[in-house]
Amino acid sequence: MSRIVTLLALTGSIAFLSAPASAQTGHTAPRDTFRVIGDAELAKLSSGKTPLVLSTLVDHENHYVLVAGRSGPGEVEIHEHWIDYMVIQQGEADFTSGGTASGMHDTGPGEKRGGSITGGTVVSLKRGDFVVVPAGQPHLTMIKGSGPFRAVLVKLRE
Q1: Would you say 122 and 99 are in contact if contact means Cβ atoms under 8 Å apart?
Q2: The pLDDT of residue 14
Q3: 3-class DSSP state for residue 18?
Q4: CA-to-CA distance for 51 and 17, rounded, in angstroms?
Q5: Per-residue b/e over 46-80, b at no fewer than 16 CB within 10 Å?
Q6: What is the 3-state secondary structure (H, E, C) of 27-61?
Q7: How many beta carbons lie within 10 A of that of residue 23, not counting itself?
Q8: How many domains does the chain have?
Q9: ∠ CA 128-133-135, rounded to 5°
């Protein structure tokens, strides 16, 4: 858990320092209060009846934090304007990044899902691993075994 707290603190500092001044002054969301979200609560927030469960822990204009739980196969994703920083908390997965994505569909502004990746790099992820996915890079998470797989994601607007 200390890795997550450190990551969140570091990423919050980076987001503050890298955000344009206009974005900082125009932000209307209230300040975050100190809180600790324990492992049991993160497990609850990331479990459900669907293969992917996402719960937002922090939400700001230029960064947000999610806990993601997977119990089934993922799909190829591309986030044109968001860098993903991910800490694996539970389970194992094969993670494919890079290469060329095809057959995707738009799911929102700058967001695409589905299809397949050709020529990407595949790595095995396990508890404690840290992953950085640059904005615009195709990526795919495929859990090993029956799961569950859980990660905390910090998403920073590029």
Answers
A1: no
A2: 41
A3: helix
A4: 36
A5: bbeeeebbebebbebebbbbbbbbbbeebbbbbbe
A6: CCCCCCCCCCCCHHHHHHHCCCCCCEEEEEEEECC
A7: 14
A8: 1
A9: 155
Nearest to 40 by CA among 143, 131, 150: 150
Q: At which residue do the structure tokens 């994703």 appear?
A: 77
The CATH number of the domain where 59 resides is what? 2.60.120.370
Segment (H or E) for 94? strand 93-97
Q: What is the pLDDT of residue 153?
A: 97
Tokens of 122: 């595949």
Domain that holds residue 103: 2-157
Cα–Cα nearest to 139, from 127, 155, 147: 155
Average pLDDT rounded to a whole number, residues 56-62? 93
Sole residue written with tokens 């694996």: 88
CB 107 within 8 A of CB 113: yes
Q: Which two tokens stand for residue 95?
A: 């993670």
Token pair belonging to 43: 């497990």
Q: From CA 83, how far away is CA 125, in angstroms rounded?
A: 18
Q: Enter the pTM of the model.
A: 0.78
